[in-house]
Amino acid sequence: MMTAVLTGFFTALSLILPIGAQNALVLRQGLAKSHVFWTCMFCALSDAILICAGVAGLASVMARFPNLPFYMTWGGIIFLVSYAALRLIAAYRGQYEAEIEGKPRSLRRIIATLAAVTWLNPHVYLDTTALLGTVSLQFETVPLKIAFTLAAVSASFVFFFTVGYGARLVAPAFKSPRVWRYLDVAIAGVMLAIALGLYVSLAAH
């Protein structure tokens, strides 16, 4: 049982840890102190759904729709490039009064952005769903599969809430519009790098 728990927790954590679009947005919301709880909860619940689907065998279902990853990839590329452009425009304008003063922005817009970043990225399905689903195959009994799944889901909750609320520890350094500019430029860079990676993966096929 402990083997299943440790495998599930640390495998999931290793997939979430690399800097990605989700993590960058959670960090930004944490620094802005804007809708942090719902930002973290949405990302963690999304991961939980994908993890459960992976263990349940969604990868085999998706294999029946071979064109779906292609359309999802283009949707992800378009969104990521668009969002990167918005962050660069924000950095150019330098209007960060709401972020510095901790004024909440539209929760609906934040959730919509997170939904696009999460569900339009085919790598999420390949990494989280397919990989974790494959790793879970070594645990054949139902109790072990449940233990593996719960541990993997808990890793996602621990990570996102740690990033979201832990960002407050460095929030004092973000009292300057210049620092927010740097952050937005960095986030734009992450988005464009992911978009480029998605495009390269398309070209390779």
Element-by-element helix/strand order: HHHHHHHHHH
What is the rounded Rg? Answer: 18 Å
Number of helices: 10
The total count of strands amounts to 0
Oligomer: single chain
Distance from N terminus to C terminus (CA atoms, Å) equals: 40 Å
* Biggest sheet features: none
Low-confidence stretches: none
Taken together, the total number of domains comes to: 1
Average pLDDT over all residues:
83
Strand content: under 5%
Helix content: over 70%
Q: Give the overall shape, derived from the CA principal axes.
A: globular
Category by helix and strand content:
mainly alpha
Provide structural commentary.
The protein is mainly alpha-helical. It has one domain (2-204). Helices cover 80% and strands 0% of the residues. The protein has ten helices and no strands. Helix 2 crosses helix 9, helix 3 (36-56) packs antiparallel against helix 9 and helix 5 (68-93) packs antiparallel against helix 10 (177-204). It is globular, with a radius of gyration of 18 Å. It starts with a helix and ends with a helix. The model has no long low-confidence stretch (mean pLDDT 83). Keywords: Cell membrane, Membrane, Transmembrane, Transmembrane helix. InterPro entries: LeuE-type (IPR001123). It is found in: Cell membrane. This is Amino acid transporter.
